[in-house]
Amino acid sequence: MSPFDLVIRGGTVVTAAESSRCDVGIRDGRVVALAERLTGGERVIDAAGKLVLPGGIDAHCHLDQPRAHGLASAGAVMADDFRSGSLSAAFGGTTTIIPFAVQHRGQSVTAAVADYHARAAGKAYIDYGFHLIVSDPSEKVLTEELPALLPAGYASVKVYMTYEAMRISDRQILDVLDVCRRYGALTMIHAENFECLMWLTEKLEAAGHTEPKYHAASRPMPLEREATHRAAMLAEVAQARLLIVHVSGAQALDEIRRARERGVQIHAETCPQYLFLSEADLDLPDFEGAKCMCSPPPRDSANQALIWRGIADGSFDIFSSDHAPYRFDAMGKLLNGRIAPFRKVANGIPGLETRAPLLFSEGVTAGRISLQRFVELNSANAARLYGLYPRKGTIAIGADADIAIWDPEKKLTLSNHLLHHNVDYTPYEGRAITGWPVIVLSRGEVICEHGELRAQAGRGNFLKRDSLQQGADTWT
Ligand code: DUC
Ligand code: ZN
Ligand code: ZN
Asked: How far is the CA of 107 from the centre of ligand 3 (A)?
Protein backbone atom coordinates (compact mmCIF):
# COMPACT_ATOMS: atom_id res chain seq x y z
CA MET A 1 0.00 0.00 0.00
CA SER A 2 1.27 3.43 -0.86
CA PRO A 3 2.20 5.56 2.16
CA PHE A 4 0.50 8.57 0.58
CA ASP A 5 -2.84 9.24 -1.04
CA LEU A 6 -1.22 12.04 -2.95
CA VAL A 7 2.25 13.41 -3.52
CA ILE A 8 2.85 16.93 -4.85
CA ARG A 9 6.19 16.57 -6.54
CA GLY A 10 8.87 19.02 -7.52
CA GLY A 11 7.25 22.32 -6.57
CA THR A 12 8.49 25.16 -4.42
CA VAL A 13 6.69 24.95 -1.10
CA VAL A 14 6.07 28.36 0.40
CA THR A 15 5.03 29.22 3.94
CA ALA A 16 5.06 32.50 5.83
CA ALA A 17 8.51 31.55 7.11
CA GLU A 18 10.36 30.17 4.09
CA SER A 19 10.40 28.72 0.59
CA SER A 20 11.90 25.31 -0.11
CA ARG A 21 12.02 22.94 -3.03
CA CYS A 22 10.41 19.80 -1.68
CA ASP A 23 7.71 17.20 -2.19
CA VAL A 24 4.54 17.13 -0.10
CA GLY A 25 3.08 13.81 1.04
CA ILE A 26 -0.61 13.75 1.92
CA ARG A 27 -2.60 11.07 3.69
CA ASP A 28 -6.13 11.18 5.07
CA GLY A 29 -6.47 14.84 4.20
CA ARG A 30 -3.38 16.02 6.03
CA VAL A 31 0.23 16.76 5.25
CA VAL A 32 2.26 13.84 6.57
CA ALA A 33 5.63 14.28 4.89
CA LEU A 34 7.82 17.03 3.49
CA ALA A 35 11.04 15.84 1.91
CA GLU A 36 13.37 16.48 -0.98
CA ARG A 37 12.11 13.36 -2.71
CA LEU A 38 9.06 11.28 -1.78
CA THR A 39 8.25 8.05 -3.55
CA GLY A 40 4.92 6.34 -3.78
CA GLY A 41 1.59 8.09 -3.80
CA GLU A 42 -1.69 6.82 -5.24
CA ARG A 43 -1.66 10.01 -7.22
CA VAL A 44 1.25 12.25 -8.06
CA ILE A 45 0.85 15.87 -9.11
CA ASP A 46 3.81 17.26 -11.01
CA ALA A 47 4.37 20.75 -9.62
CA ALA A 48 7.68 21.49 -11.36
CA GLY A 49 7.93 25.22 -11.98
CA LYS A 50 4.94 25.86 -9.74
CA LEU A 51 4.49 27.36 -6.29
CA VAL A 52 2.86 25.20 -3.63
CA LEU A 53 1.12 27.59 -1.25
CA PRO A 54 -1.24 27.25 1.72
CA GLY A 55 -4.81 27.70 0.51
CA GLY A 56 -6.13 31.20 1.02
CA ILE A 57 -8.32 32.19 3.94
CA ASP A 58 -10.89 34.86 3.20
CA ALA A 59 -11.72 36.03 6.69
CA HIS A 60 -14.22 38.70 5.68
CA CYS A 61 -16.95 37.83 3.23
CA HIS A 62 -20.74 38.00 3.23
CA LEU A 63 -22.84 35.10 1.94
CA ASP A 64 -26.58 34.51 2.11
CA GLN A 65 -27.11 36.92 4.96
CA PRO A 66 -30.76 37.29 5.92
CA ARG A 67 -32.16 40.58 4.68
CA ALA A 68 -31.69 43.42 7.08
CA HIS A 69 -34.57 45.54 8.25
CA GLY A 70 -33.92 49.23 8.59
CA LEU A 71 -30.87 49.36 6.33
CA ALA A 72 -31.18 51.97 3.58
CA SER A 73 -30.72 49.14 1.10
CA ALA A 74 -33.16 46.85 2.94
CA GLY A 75 -34.58 44.29 0.56
CA ALA A 76 -31.49 43.80 -1.59
CA VAL A 77 -30.69 40.10 -1.83
CA MET A 78 -27.22 38.59 -1.64
CA ALA A 79 -26.66 36.70 -4.86
CA ASP A 80 -24.18 34.20 -3.42
CA ASP A 81 -24.97 31.46 -0.96
CA PHE A 82 -22.52 28.96 0.52
CA ARG A 83 -22.57 26.97 -2.71
CA SER A 84 -21.71 29.65 -5.26
CA GLY A 85 -19.63 31.67 -2.81
CA SER A 86 -17.42 28.77 -1.76
CA LEU A 87 -17.12 27.59 -5.37
CA SER A 88 -15.93 31.00 -6.45
CA ALA A 89 -13.51 31.21 -3.54
CA ALA A 90 -12.04 27.80 -4.40
CA PHE A 91 -11.35 28.73 -8.03
CA GLY A 92 -9.43 31.73 -6.73
CA GLY A 93 -7.20 29.59 -4.51
CA THR A 94 -9.11 30.15 -1.27
CA THR A 95 -9.81 27.06 0.83
CA THR A 96 -11.36 28.57 3.95
CA ILE A 97 -13.99 31.28 4.28
CA ILE A 98 -15.30 33.00 7.38
CA PRO A 99 -18.58 34.78 6.67
CA PHE A 100 -20.91 36.25 9.28
CA ALA A 101 -23.85 34.95 11.29
CA VAL A 102 -25.80 38.17 11.80
CA GLN A 103 -27.86 39.07 14.82
CA HIS A 104 -30.46 41.63 13.83
CA ARG A 105 -31.96 43.78 16.58
CA GLY A 106 -34.26 41.94 18.92
CA GLN A 107 -32.94 38.57 17.73
CA SER A 108 -31.05 35.97 19.67
CA VAL A 109 -27.45 35.46 18.54
CA THR A 110 -27.81 31.74 19.15
CA ALA A 111 -30.81 31.63 16.84
CA ALA A 112 -28.89 33.60 14.21
CA VAL A 113 -26.09 31.03 14.40
CA ALA A 114 -28.55 28.13 14.08
CA ASP A 115 -30.17 29.81 11.08
CA TYR A 116 -26.77 30.34 9.46
CA HIS A 117 -25.81 26.70 9.96
CA ALA A 118 -29.01 25.75 8.16
CA ARG A 119 -28.12 28.11 5.30
CA ALA A 120 -24.65 26.55 5.00
CA ALA A 121 -25.63 22.91 5.39
CA GLY A 122 -24.79 20.68 2.45
CA LYS A 123 -23.60 23.52 0.23
CA ALA A 124 -19.98 24.44 0.80
CA TYR A 125 -17.11 23.18 -1.35
CA ILE A 126 -14.52 24.30 1.19
CA ASP A 127 -14.28 24.58 4.96
CA TYR A 128 -15.90 27.52 6.68
CA GLY A 129 -16.22 29.18 10.07
CA PHE A 130 -18.62 31.86 11.27
CA HIS A 131 -17.92 35.24 12.80
CA LEU A 132 -20.78 36.70 14.80
CA ILE A 133 -22.25 40.14 14.09
CA VAL A 134 -23.82 41.67 17.16
CA SER A 135 -26.21 44.58 16.64
CA ASP A 136 -28.09 44.27 19.92
CA PRO A 137 -25.81 43.49 22.88
CA SER A 138 -28.55 42.98 25.43
CA GLU A 139 -27.90 41.70 28.93
CA LYS A 140 -28.79 38.20 27.78
CA VAL A 141 -26.41 38.41 24.81
CA LEU A 142 -23.56 39.63 27.00
CA THR A 143 -24.04 37.34 29.95
CA GLU A 144 -25.47 34.19 28.39
CA GLU A 145 -25.22 33.93 24.63
CA LEU A 146 -21.70 35.20 23.95
CA PRO A 147 -20.21 33.37 26.95
CA ALA A 148 -21.66 30.17 25.49
CA LEU A 149 -20.83 30.83 21.83
CA LEU A 150 -17.34 32.36 21.98
CA PRO A 151 -15.66 29.29 23.52
CA ALA A 152 -17.73 26.97 21.32
CA GLY A 153 -15.87 27.82 18.11
CA TYR A 154 -17.17 31.29 17.25
CA ALA A 155 -14.33 33.33 18.71
CA SER A 156 -14.81 36.60 16.82
CA VAL A 157 -17.48 39.30 16.86
CA LYS A 158 -17.99 42.11 14.38
CA VAL A 159 -19.65 45.33 15.48
CA TYR A 160 -20.59 48.40 13.47
CA MET A 161 -20.14 52.06 14.31
CA THR A 162 -22.36 52.91 11.35
CA TYR A 163 -25.51 51.71 9.50
CA GLU A 164 -28.68 52.70 11.34
CA ALA A 165 -29.84 49.12 11.75
CA MET A 166 -26.51 47.73 12.90
CA ARG A 167 -24.59 50.37 14.81
CA ILE A 168 -24.05 50.14 18.52
CA SER A 169 -22.97 52.88 20.93
CA ASP A 170 -19.47 53.35 22.33
CA ARG A 171 -20.67 51.99 25.66
CA GLN A 172 -22.06 48.90 23.95
CA ILE A 173 -18.80 48.45 22.05
CA LEU A 174 -16.99 48.48 25.41
CA ASP A 175 -19.34 45.75 26.61
CA VAL A 176 -18.60 43.60 23.54
CA LEU A 177 -14.85 44.23 23.79
CA ASP A 178 -14.98 43.24 27.44
CA VAL A 179 -16.80 39.96 26.93
CA CYS A 180 -14.54 39.12 23.97
CA ARG A 181 -11.46 39.83 26.07
CA ARG A 182 -12.70 37.54 28.83
CA TYR A 183 -13.28 34.68 26.41
CA GLY A 184 -10.20 35.23 24.24
CA ALA A 185 -12.23 36.29 21.21
CA LEU A 186 -11.36 39.00 18.73
CA THR A 187 -13.60 42.05 18.24
CA MET A 188 -13.75 43.33 14.65
CA ILE A 189 -14.94 46.90 14.14
CA HIS A 190 -16.39 48.67 11.11
CA ALA A 191 -15.13 52.18 11.83
CA GLU A 192 -16.98 55.13 10.31
CA ASN A 193 -18.58 58.05 12.15
CA PHE A 194 -22.32 57.63 11.58
CA GLU A 195 -23.53 61.08 12.69
CA CYS A 196 -21.00 62.72 10.44
CA LEU A 197 -21.81 60.69 7.35
CA MET A 198 -25.54 61.21 7.83
CA TRP A 199 -25.03 64.95 8.18
CA LEU A 200 -23.02 64.99 4.94
CA THR A 201 -25.50 62.70 3.19
CA GLU A 202 -28.41 64.99 4.02
CA LYS A 203 -26.50 68.06 2.86
CA LEU A 204 -25.54 66.37 -0.42
CA GLU A 205 -29.12 65.21 -1.00
CA ALA A 206 -30.48 68.71 -0.27
CA ALA A 207 -28.14 70.04 -2.96
CA GLY A 208 -29.40 67.42 -5.41
CA HIS A 209 -26.15 65.48 -5.31
CA THR A 210 -27.51 61.95 -5.23
CA GLU A 211 -25.50 60.04 -7.88
CA PRO A 212 -23.21 57.16 -6.85
CA LYS A 213 -20.10 59.35 -7.02
CA TYR A 214 -21.38 61.33 -4.02
CA HIS A 215 -21.21 58.19 -1.90
CA ALA A 216 -17.47 58.92 -1.58
CA ALA A 217 -18.12 62.56 -0.66
CA SER A 218 -20.53 61.45 2.08
CA ARG A 219 -17.89 59.29 3.77
CA PRO A 220 -14.57 61.16 3.53
CA MET A 221 -11.39 59.89 5.15
CA PRO A 222 -11.58 62.03 8.35
CA LEU A 223 -14.69 60.28 9.56
CA GLU A 224 -13.03 56.88 9.12
CA ARG A 225 -9.96 58.29 10.86
CA GLU A 226 -12.01 59.53 13.82
CA ALA A 227 -13.89 56.26 14.21
CA THR A 228 -10.68 54.25 13.94
CA HIS A 229 -9.12 56.40 16.64
CA ARG A 230 -12.23 55.98 18.82
CA ALA A 231 -12.31 52.22 18.30
CA ALA A 232 -8.63 52.01 19.29
CA MET A 233 -9.29 54.12 22.37
CA LEU A 234 -12.20 51.88 23.37
CA ALA A 235 -10.00 48.80 23.00
CA GLU A 236 -7.32 50.54 25.05
CA VAL A 237 -9.80 51.27 27.83
CA ALA A 238 -11.24 47.75 27.72
CA GLN A 239 -7.72 46.29 27.43
CA ALA A 240 -8.99 44.11 24.63
CA ARG A 241 -7.65 42.97 21.31
CA LEU A 242 -9.22 44.61 18.27
CA LEU A 243 -9.17 44.32 14.49
CA ILE A 244 -10.18 47.21 12.25
CA VAL A 245 -11.81 45.78 9.14
CA HIS A 246 -11.55 47.20 5.61
CA VAL A 247 -9.11 50.05 6.20
CA SER A 248 -9.38 52.29 3.15
CA GLY A 249 -6.66 54.88 3.44
CA ALA A 250 -3.69 56.51 5.08
CA GLN A 251 -5.35 58.48 7.86
CA ALA A 252 -7.00 55.42 9.39
CA LEU A 253 -3.77 53.45 9.06
CA ASP A 254 -1.89 56.24 10.84
CA GLU A 255 -4.32 55.94 13.76
CA ILE A 256 -3.68 52.22 13.91
CA ARG A 257 0.07 52.76 13.95
CA ARG A 258 -0.26 55.36 16.69
CA ALA A 259 -2.40 53.01 18.76
CA ARG A 260 0.18 50.24 18.36
CA GLU A 261 2.87 52.61 19.59
CA ARG A 262 0.78 53.10 22.75
CA GLY A 263 0.63 49.34 23.19
CA VAL A 264 -2.93 48.76 22.00
CA GLN A 265 -3.38 45.25 20.59
CA ILE A 266 -4.81 46.38 17.29
CA HIS A 267 -4.82 44.51 14.00
CA ALA A 268 -5.65 45.80 10.56
CA GLU A 269 -7.33 44.41 7.48
CA THR A 270 -7.50 45.87 4.01
CA CYS A 271 -9.20 44.71 0.81
CA PRO A 272 -8.57 44.74 -2.96
CA GLN A 273 -11.00 47.62 -3.52
CA TYR A 274 -8.64 49.98 -1.68
CA LEU A 275 -5.75 49.05 -3.97
CA PHE A 276 -7.46 48.67 -7.32
CA LEU A 277 -10.49 50.99 -7.28
CA SER A 278 -10.75 54.71 -6.67
CA GLU A 279 -13.52 57.23 -6.15
CA ALA A 280 -13.34 57.92 -9.91
CA ASP A 281 -14.89 54.46 -10.44
CA LEU A 282 -18.02 55.65 -8.63
CA ASP A 283 -18.53 58.14 -11.46
CA LEU A 284 -18.92 55.55 -14.24
CA PRO A 285 -21.78 56.42 -16.62
CA ASP A 286 -25.29 54.88 -16.62
CA PHE A 287 -25.29 54.30 -12.87
CA GLU A 288 -22.45 51.79 -13.28
CA GLY A 289 -20.58 53.61 -10.52
CA ALA A 290 -22.96 51.76 -8.17
CA LYS A 291 -21.01 48.58 -8.98
CA CYS A 292 -18.02 49.98 -7.10
CA MET A 293 -19.92 51.37 -4.12
CA CYS A 294 -18.74 49.95 -0.84
CA SER A 295 -18.15 51.35 2.62
CA PRO A 296 -15.70 52.78 3.37
CA PRO A 297 -15.50 53.98 -0.25
CA PRO A 298 -12.48 53.54 -2.51
CA ARG A 299 -10.17 56.59 -2.17
CA ASP A 300 -7.57 58.15 -4.50
CA SER A 301 -4.27 57.07 -6.00
CA ALA A 302 -2.24 58.59 -3.15
CA ASN A 303 -4.17 56.48 -0.64
CA GLN A 304 -3.82 53.40 -2.85
CA ALA A 305 -0.05 53.89 -2.78
CA LEU A 306 -0.04 54.26 1.01
CA ILE A 307 -2.16 51.14 1.42
CA TRP A 308 0.38 49.29 -0.75
CA ARG A 309 3.12 50.59 1.51
CA GLY A 310 1.24 49.29 4.57
CA ILE A 311 0.85 45.93 2.87
CA ALA A 312 4.57 45.74 2.18
CA ASP A 313 5.81 47.02 5.54
CA GLY A 314 3.69 44.74 7.73
CA SER A 315 1.18 47.35 8.91
CA PHE A 316 -1.66 45.20 7.61
CA ASP A 317 -2.21 41.79 9.09
CA ILE A 318 -4.77 40.37 6.69
CA PHE A 319 -6.16 40.89 3.20
CA SER A 320 -9.83 40.00 2.79
CA SER A 321 -12.37 40.48 0.04
CA ASP A 322 -15.35 41.89 1.99
CA HIS A 323 -17.26 40.05 -0.75
CA ALA A 324 -20.80 41.48 -0.61
CA PRO A 325 -22.60 39.98 -3.58
CA TYR A 326 -25.23 42.29 -5.03
CA ARG A 327 -26.09 41.88 -8.69
CA PHE A 328 -26.49 44.90 -10.95
CA ASP A 329 -30.20 44.21 -11.23
CA ALA A 330 -33.50 44.87 -9.45
CA MET A 331 -32.69 42.36 -6.68
CA GLY A 332 -29.38 44.04 -5.92
CA LYS A 333 -27.80 47.38 -6.79
CA LEU A 334 -30.85 48.51 -8.81
CA LEU A 335 -33.41 47.64 -6.13
CA ASN A 336 -34.52 51.26 -6.02
CA GLY A 337 -33.97 51.92 -9.73
CA ARG A 338 -31.26 53.58 -11.76
CA ILE A 339 -31.85 57.00 -10.32
CA ALA A 340 -31.87 55.95 -6.69
CA PRO A 341 -30.02 58.26 -4.33
CA PHE A 342 -26.68 56.76 -3.31
CA ARG A 343 -27.87 56.09 0.23
CA LYS A 344 -30.45 53.63 -1.13
CA VAL A 345 -27.94 51.54 -3.06
CA ALA A 346 -26.74 48.31 -1.44
CA ASN A 347 -23.13 48.65 -0.33
CA GLY A 348 -20.53 46.13 -1.34
CA ILE A 349 -18.68 44.55 -4.20
CA PRO A 350 -17.87 40.96 -5.16
CA GLY A 351 -14.32 39.67 -4.77
CA LEU A 352 -13.96 36.15 -3.35
CA GLU A 353 -12.34 34.71 -6.47
CA THR A 354 -10.23 37.70 -7.48
CA ARG A 355 -8.85 38.59 -4.02
CA ALA A 356 -5.76 36.37 -3.91
CA PRO A 357 -4.88 36.56 -7.65
CA LEU A 358 -5.00 40.37 -7.58
CA LEU A 359 -2.66 40.46 -4.58
CA PHE A 360 -0.37 37.87 -6.15
CA SER A 361 -0.21 39.62 -9.50
CA GLU A 362 0.23 43.20 -8.34
CA GLY A 363 2.03 42.23 -5.14
CA VAL A 364 4.34 39.30 -5.86
CA THR A 365 4.66 39.39 -9.66
CA ALA A 366 5.04 43.17 -9.71
CA GLY A 367 7.75 42.93 -7.04
CA ARG A 368 6.00 44.86 -4.28
CA ILE A 369 5.91 42.01 -1.73
CA SER A 370 7.74 38.75 -1.11
CA LEU A 371 6.12 35.34 -1.31
CA GLN A 372 6.37 35.09 2.47
CA ARG A 373 4.44 38.32 2.89
CA PHE A 374 1.87 37.07 0.40
CA VAL A 375 1.32 33.91 2.44
CA GLU A 376 1.02 35.94 5.64
CA LEU A 377 -1.63 38.22 4.14
CA ASN A 378 -3.42 35.54 2.17
CA SER A 379 -3.72 32.89 4.84
CA ALA A 380 -1.26 32.51 7.71
CA ASN A 381 -2.19 35.62 9.68
CA ALA A 382 -5.94 35.04 9.33
CA ALA A 383 -5.42 31.50 10.61
CA ARG A 384 -3.51 32.84 13.61
CA LEU A 385 -5.94 35.63 14.41
CA TYR A 386 -9.05 33.55 14.02
CA GLY A 387 -7.99 30.41 15.85
CA LEU A 388 -7.22 28.10 12.94
CA TYR A 389 -3.42 27.92 13.05
CA PRO A 390 -1.58 25.63 12.33
CA ARG A 391 -4.41 23.46 11.07
CA LYS A 392 -4.93 26.03 8.31
CA GLY A 393 -2.68 28.74 6.91
CA THR A 394 0.54 26.76 6.53
CA ILE A 395 2.05 23.67 4.96
CA ALA A 396 3.47 21.63 7.81
CA ILE A 397 3.31 18.09 9.10
CA GLY A 398 -0.13 17.56 10.61
CA ALA A 399 -1.77 20.55 8.92
CA ASP A 400 -4.84 20.09 6.76
CA ALA A 401 -3.71 19.66 3.16
CA ASP A 402 -5.41 22.86 2.01
CA ILE A 403 -3.06 23.78 -0.79
CA ALA A 404 -3.16 25.99 -3.86
CA ILE A 405 -0.66 25.21 -6.60
CA TRP A 406 0.05 28.48 -8.36
CA ASP A 407 1.43 28.91 -11.84
CA PRO A 408 3.32 32.17 -11.40
CA GLU A 409 3.57 32.62 -15.17
CA LYS A 410 -0.07 32.10 -16.06
CA LYS A 411 -1.54 35.20 -17.63
CA LEU A 412 -5.18 36.01 -17.98
CA THR A 413 -7.49 38.95 -18.33
CA LEU A 414 -10.15 39.10 -15.66
CA SER A 415 -13.66 38.90 -16.97
CA ASN A 416 -16.88 38.07 -15.20
CA HIS A 417 -17.60 35.10 -17.45
CA LEU A 418 -14.46 33.39 -16.08
CA LEU A 419 -15.65 33.69 -12.49
CA HIS A 420 -17.87 31.32 -10.54
CA HIS A 421 -19.82 33.65 -8.30
CA ASN A 422 -23.45 34.47 -8.97
CA VAL A 423 -22.88 38.20 -9.34
CA ASP A 424 -23.30 39.58 -12.85
CA TYR A 425 -20.20 41.76 -12.84
CA THR A 426 -16.70 42.12 -11.50
CA PRO A 427 -15.32 45.58 -10.81
CA TYR A 428 -12.01 44.26 -12.17
CA GLU A 429 -13.25 43.47 -15.69
CA GLY A 430 -10.36 43.72 -18.17
CA ARG A 431 -7.56 43.76 -15.62
CA ALA A 432 -4.49 41.75 -16.68
CA ILE A 433 -3.25 39.20 -14.15
CA THR A 434 -0.01 37.21 -14.02
CA GLY A 435 -0.11 34.25 -11.63
CA TRP A 436 -3.09 32.01 -10.95
CA PRO A 437 -3.88 28.99 -8.74
CA VAL A 438 -4.17 26.16 -11.25
CA ILE A 439 -4.81 23.24 -8.86
CA VAL A 440 -6.57 23.65 -5.52
CA LEU A 441 -6.77 21.03 -2.77
CA SER A 442 -8.99 21.02 0.29
CA ARG A 443 -8.04 18.46 2.94
CA GLY A 444 -6.07 16.57 0.33
CA GLU A 445 -8.88 16.40 -2.21
CA VAL A 446 -8.32 18.06 -5.56
CA ILE A 447 -11.31 20.37 -5.87
CA CYS A 448 -10.31 22.56 -8.82
CA GLU A 449 -7.92 21.57 -11.57
CA HIS A 450 -7.04 23.73 -14.56
CA GLY A 451 -10.43 25.40 -14.57
CA GLU A 452 -12.44 22.21 -13.95
CA LEU A 453 -14.45 21.51 -10.82
CA ARG A 454 -13.59 18.12 -9.27
CA ALA A 455 -15.57 18.23 -6.02
CA GLN A 456 -19.12 17.96 -4.77
CA ALA A 457 -20.97 20.72 -2.96
CA GLY A 458 -21.43 19.92 0.72
CA ARG A 459 -17.97 18.45 1.27
CA GLY A 460 -16.88 21.58 3.18
CA ASN A 461 -16.83 21.26 6.96
CA PHE A 462 -17.78 23.77 9.60
CA LEU A 463 -14.69 24.85 11.53
CA LYS A 464 -14.85 25.41 15.25
CA ARG A 465 -12.22 28.01 15.87
CA ASP A 466 -10.01 28.32 18.96
CA SER A 467 -9.99 31.36 21.20
CA LEU A 468 -6.90 33.51 21.55
CA GLN A 469 -5.16 32.83 24.81
CA GLN A 470 -5.06 36.23 26.43
CA GLY A 471 -1.60 37.02 27.67
CA ALA A 472 0.00 34.19 25.74
CA ASP A 473 1.54 35.39 22.52
CA THR A 474 -0.19 33.28 19.95
CA TRP A 475 0.36 36.00 17.43
CA THR A 476 4.04 36.34 16.58
N1 DUC B 1 -19.39 47.45 3.67
C2 DUC B 1 -19.62 46.70 4.73
O3 DUC B 1 -19.41 47.13 5.85
N4 DUC B 1 -20.09 45.46 4.58
C5 DUC B 1 -20.43 44.91 3.34
C6 DUC B 1 -20.09 45.71 2.20
C7 DUC B 1 -19.60 47.05 2.42
O8 DUC B 1 -19.38 47.80 1.52
ZN1 ZN C 1 -18.03 46.58 7.34
ZN1 ZN D 1 -18.14 43.45 5.38
From this structure: 20
